[in-house]
Records
---
Amino acid sequence: MNYKVDTQIFFKSLQKSICAALEAEDGLGKFEIHEWKRLGGGGGITAVLQDGAVIEKGGVNFSSVEGVLPAVVAKALRVESTHFFATGLSIVIHPNNPHVPIIHMNVRYFETSTNGRSEEQWFGGGIDLTPHYVDKEQAKFFHQHLKNTCDARGKEMYPEFKKLADEYFYIKHRDETRGVGGIFFDRMYASQKYNLHNRFEFIKSLGNSFAPIYTHLMSVNKNKSYTPEEKNWQLIRRGRYVEFNLVYDKGTKFGLDTDGRIESILMSLPKMASWPYDPQFEEGSKEKETLSLLKKGIDWLK
Amino acid sequence: MNYKVDTQIFFKSLQKSICAALEAEDGLGKFEIHEWKRLGGGGGITAVLQDGAVIEKGGVNFSSVEGVLPAVVAKALRVESTHFFATGLSIVIHPNNPHVPIIHMNVRYFETSTNGRSEEQWFGGGIDLTPHYVDKEQAKFFHQHLKNTCDARGKEMYPEFKKLADEYFYIKHRDETRGVGGIFFDRMYASQKYNLHNRFEFIKSLGNSFAPIYTHLMSVNKNKSYTPEEKNWQLIRRGRYVEFNLVYDKGTKFGLDTDGRIESILMSLPKMASWPYDPQFEEGSKEKETLSLLKKGIDWLK
């Protein structure tokens, strides 16, 4: 099995099927496709839908880049190889309606090599949900689907990856999680228990679960009415999303450090975001309730 | 002379006079004052004006913090001291009208010490202008004032500090300067030529020049009419401002790393910003012209 080839085939095909499902549920918006080449090697296919009926700005981006591993990235990855190959699919969807949650998924395959000799191979990724207003039933729905996908491959996976997501999708300077979390797995090597083939099968299951999960969440929320105050709150929550992506997100940093295409990397940023100074919310308000739920360690399945 | 005391007195007094001048030119908005304490030592006085006639969101923040120097900060500063004292004034003004430029100034005094023994003392700071649309005459006005302030203390200062500003106020991943630059001086120690007293006098002159410079730029631009397209462009330029502050700005990083008050540190972010996907502008448009001027090394005084 040639993972370099097979992962790219899968991620490209997943991109097409997810774009088709999101367009169908949106009912109005269409993805614009932009192919790009990276100077140092490789490139990508950026698919962005803007100003749809449900989706305000959403990107489903395939990339496959390779070349000399920049020293700063090698250090961050703690590898000594000189070259890398990375392919994956990155998704961020910002909806119009504050009752539809923001979603993010990234699935990727990574290889490092020196003098053409492959040294390390791993899969990585994660998925997390950022409701502007936390709905506990929908958080449970989301986590239950992720647990089912994990459990099919190994019972220890969901608890471990859920905890890693709580740690990773965390805005330290705010002491807030980005949303209700999800699962995160940075580097899944072949192990005694799981060979790379098993890992790839897990990535496939997770990738294929994205469209059914998110189109459901679009469908049940997209027709809810909302107030200008709820829209303002959405813009503030998007500001937090920008803070996370620019200050902490490793994928963004990797993209900037490896001279990726800027508009593809920063498609994760919302079309509009807001930072009013020190906004205050009343005790008992829905905004305060959401803030109280942006914490690590919540068991959403209870 | 006790710099710890005298710098604080100056920065607090400068905060008051700048707030008064900005309120007078705005004509509607009033600064709200918020005093805060830092758990590890010190605190600050945050002054924010929101929803004025000219200023949409502007902060003029005094802070005076001290305590144990976090290892990550000591490393960034390349000092071995265990304690620090830092006081300064930080200003960022985001106007409503896209024809009024964004402005930033920071002036500060820093000391490091170990076991109560003062080790290093320096002044630092910078000021830069970010017009949404570059107006060469106004860029010249701005730089001429900075040059005059510098020249009064030493003819070598303006060229050196102007170059440092071009390097510092630079968004690497966009290959764009933040705006038309200004001056930047990170660590001005006492030297053979300039003692700390001279340095402080320079900081005072620069601080006192802020209000006349910016109220002039408010005054000549605030009544210009603008189109929805110009407003959109302003929101995009603000997005770049957010990118700079969250990805590169050392003051923001210092604040986050030393557990400063988040809303005071992030007062630099605009009330509203926008990231449409890959916006395109016509050749010959004012937007393209501005983009062509966001480059290092332009001599605005010509």
---
Amino acid sequence: MLKENQEFTSIIFEPMGRRIKVKLGDNILRSALRSGIGIRNECGGIFGKCGKCKIIIKDQSNLNSPTKVERELLGESELKKGYRLACQSIIRGEVRVFVPEESKIRKRRLQIFGIKREVRLKPTIKKLHIKIPHPSIQDNRSDVERITSTIKEVYNIHELKFNLEVLRELPKIARDANWDLTITLMDDGTVISVEPRDTTNSLYGVAIDLGTSKIVASLIDLINGNLIMSNGFDNPQVIYGEDIISRITYAAIGKEQLDELKRLAVEGVNSIVTDLCKAANVDINNVYEIVLVGNTVMHHLFLGLETKYLGLSPYVPVINDQLNLRANELNIQINNGGRVYLPPVIAGFIGSDNTADLLSTNFYEIEDMSLMIDLGTNTEINLGNKDEILCCSCASGPAFEGGHIKHGMKAVEGAIEKVSINHQTYEAHYKTIGGLRPIGICGSAMIDLLAEMLKCGLIDNRGRYRNEVKTPRLRKGEFGYEYVVAWFNETDIGEDIVITQTDIAELQLAKAAIYCGCRILMKRKGIETRDIKKVFIAGAFGGYINLNNAKIIGLIPDVPTERIEFVGNAALSGAEILLKSKELRKDLKNILKKVKYVELGAQPDFNEEFLSALPFPHLKKELFPSVINLINTH
Amino acid sequence: MLKENQEFTSIIFEPMGRRIKVKLGDNILRSALRSGIGIRNECGGIFGKCGKCKIIIKDQSNLNSPTKVERELLGESELKKGYRLACQSIIRGEVRVFVPEESKIRKRRLQIFGIKREVRLKPTIKKLHIKIPHPSIQDNRSDVERITSTIKEVYNIHELKFNLEVLRELPKIARDANWDLTITLMDDGTVISVEPRDTTNSLYGVAIDLGTSKIVASLIDLINGNLIMSNGFDNPQVIYGEDIISRITYAAIGKEQLDELKRLAVEGVNSIVTDLCKAANVDINNVYEIVLVGNTVMHHLFLGLETKYLGLSPYVPVINDQLNLRANELNIQINNGGRVYLPPVIAGFIGSDNTADLLSTNFYEIEDMSLMIDLGTNTEINLGNKDEILCCSCASGPAFEGGHIKHGMKAVEGAIEKVSINHQTYEAHYKTIGGLRPIGICGSAMIDLLAEMLKCGLIDNRGRYRNEVKTPRLRKGEFGYEYVVAWFNETDIGEDIVITQTDIAELQLAKAAIYCGCRILMKRKGIETRDIKKVFIAGAFGGYINLNNAKIIGLIPDVPTERIEFVGNAALSGAEILLKSKELRKDLKNILKKVKYVELGAQPDFNEEFLSALPFPHLKKELFPSVINLINTH
């Protein structure tokens, strides 16, 4: 037995067998995350809201009793089995915690590659090799004057400015190198680095898409424009919640919390840059610039800007202009004089990732009427062409990423990613990521499930289960009717994987939000679906969805499949282009003048359009002529 | 008795009665300075060279034996009395140290006020008060866009850039103040501060002259241009040596030492600014800019730039261009977005204080041929007019500031500042600063002494004592002949205050260096003394010297006294002007184009001119027609 005044105890996590030291009175989720043990917590673990941090504790004598929240979210049968929510479980002494598969944070399928657009290589940073006359009693100009006049002579560049850090190391470097130097120069004439001898063939940059859950990055050789390597890491901020609203809520607690999220974002960026450089055998001091894009919340958190007002109507950012900052001012560890460029964000929920999307697809130069949908918790939609682009953000919610769905999960290993249902037997056939035993359902499979259930008549066009269909897979569960996608003995979680009536309702809200966004933009533009000549689908799970099924459920407008192109991580591609082309950066201001933000909440027809988009595929069947006949209406 | 392995002991300083803890093996000087006990150390205490850190220790059983250096510098009689040099005394256990008056660092007479020139008030920083429309669902522009467009509308200013720090605090300030804000703007459109409500009448700047031994500063109200208050502090770097070469030598040891001198300079500036603000009841956050001038070594040390090469031929600075830096990048504690402006330096030994001198005297716009001498350890000389200005720096050395002179000292309380000698009796009459009992001789009195001794024939025009003069005041001492200025019973140091043959030689070198500088500039310009229509004498001790005596010894050219003006701390005045006038800053580049630096060491006639300037007043008597007859040649 532990004494009352003992401050620490240890808990053991199974099946990993890890023992960690924890404070009495702390909750299990926070203790686990602090020790690097990944337990899902889509809500950020500070609300007891998402119900994803399920753990199993057989001997609960050293824990508090289940809370009201746990009783509501877990249901009687799970409580009986020893299920608890880690965020609600207060440690009173030694406990042994079992982390079931469905609660583990797993390796995600990574969408790094995106559409590639060629641009003329003209980075903002260049290197000049110079040999400078030595100082003498006849020529006692200052070190800076000596360099400046040589550069003027040889390269015809006037008006240099020197960073203080450069001035501090210049005298020694210059003399050690016998005045044989390489000068690294910003576009505006700022000298950001001085290196001994000729290093003009070592000039690198990193493009980064700082996503809510993932940071993906590309290391680019700025001498020839080649992509050397890309990689993706989890955003370390996920320990404070997997969705953006959790981050806003956490940061709103106070400066300390905001700074913590900033620190984590910076740490994440530093890790991925270090990792890329190591893997590619590139000296990190030869990385001179980072171009970073992201949604507006990530953009603000990375900079340490208040995100509170991004979460409150009218959702205004602090700044939307581009920023060109010193890396060391942001604690970003590249070359000491290095820079971080952040292209403009467009609105509170349209970030610089959307700006980058427009660049990599060349959206703003297309003649034909085009649509781009970047699917995510917030789905950004752009509609237009070279003359004008309307854009909006839909609060599509985390349903397609696994949030608020009983067995929903992100596209990590073990997730069911494809499903078909036999129209006679109502049996399900599925495929998981990595071919593992299933532990849940990810977004692409949810689209399949809904479409298949519509096609075989398991649900009606309002999304309600038809209880007259006779199959053991359709049954009444704790949360209303549910369809069994995988039986417990096939899974790795020891229970049936189902999709419930409530889940369907959540998915309906999500798809309605997205389609409603498309529809309102079309109306504001005065066009119909048939006028759309080109559709780009971007985003992490974009490449894996079945387009026909997406049209059947009314997630995307009924545009012929051959006009639809998956562009993958178009945001990262856009960041890469911005790294390579200073001309494009200059054009940005004019490009973005074409972009008009449409605040959906302020549109008078928003409610009507949203409600009309709830049925499958839509209240107005005529909007989906190519798929409407596939739906089994009995 | 102390055990061998005991690491610390204590020493007691008298007459203060302070006990401090010290490390065994440390020297007394370093230990004292570290504890804030001021002991003179003109050489920086790392050479055992200046002999100024004399202390008396009666019981020397816990000390090392006197070193070779001590035996040379102190002489037998002093050693017998228990004199030691603090820098040479190694602590082996408890000791009781007596610090004699002449070794104490005392309050200096301060030259803060200088010539005042009127300029049109147009600071680089301005404040704008704006009332901004609140965000709404119909107007969801970002905070920055909202401010930018209001400023564009109301003040017709385009293209603002926001500091990251401002962006971080903007959302809260704006909402707390109900969008009633004051924006502080740099000339280049950078927003450096955002404050709630109307603060447009609180806008201050500080002008600073960072001298080798003193930091003097003025607090200026930038709304009306008024000087609110000036003050002066010791430069905290003096603990590492009182002259500039000691600082260069200390900084050359390594980065740690350079950084320590930087830290001390920054600390000194922060102290004086804080102090001025407190005394004037001004919120330090309403100080937005500092203009700092100083010699090139101080300029470099303040910025943390390598000073090593300023001490080695060809004495090149790292940079001579003007710099406009963020205060927080330099750890200067004013408004968080505040700036520090440093005008250009001219050469390794011609700093931005000389630039400021030229501005405050309007030297570069004068029609008549003019001369400016800024007296100090390095004496800067400018000769010219609106068309061209030649300038040079003379290594006049510390003699006139007390260095290398047996009883020499700075102009602090107790220093003899004026002397006359009766031509019949050879008796000396003196006046001390503060009317205290004398403890040494400062520069102005040294000029008087030399001139008086020349007039009454105590020395010849080569500076040699005439031993045929019969007076008890002229006697043979340990270092050759010496003249007693004050008998021991009149002084506060318990010994006679004398001027030795060696002292005279030192002063001769100093005055020859200065005159030689003037002479070479005149020759390069092709003019004679009679062509000089105006002379400015600047510098700390300038205002206190007897001009006729200065001419008798040949320190300054023989220009009629009515053409000579004391301009005091012209450098601080110049810094004040630069704080008030952004136009003058813009003109600086063109003004400095008129200034040609003459490297004396590189002049073929330097040696000849220097040697000719050694006799009193000069080898060529015709150069000093107005005073030559005052000298008693027997």
